[in-house]
Amino acid sequence: MVIKVCQPYHIVTVSPWPLLVSFNVMVIMSGMVKVFTSSNWVMSVCGFMGLIFCIIIWWRDVIRESMYQGCHNSFVISGLEFGMLLFILSEVFFFVSFFWAYFHFSLSPAMEMGALWPPTAVISFNAFSVPLLNTVILLASGVSVTWAHQNLLNNKNILFYYALMMTWVLGAYFLFLQGFEYLSAMFDISYSAYGSIFYMATGFHGFHVLVGSIFLMVIWLRAKQWHFSKAHHFGFEAAAWYWHFVDVVWLFLFTLVYWWGS
Question: Do the beta carbons of residue 61 and residue 87 sit within 8 Å?
Answer without folding.
Answer: no
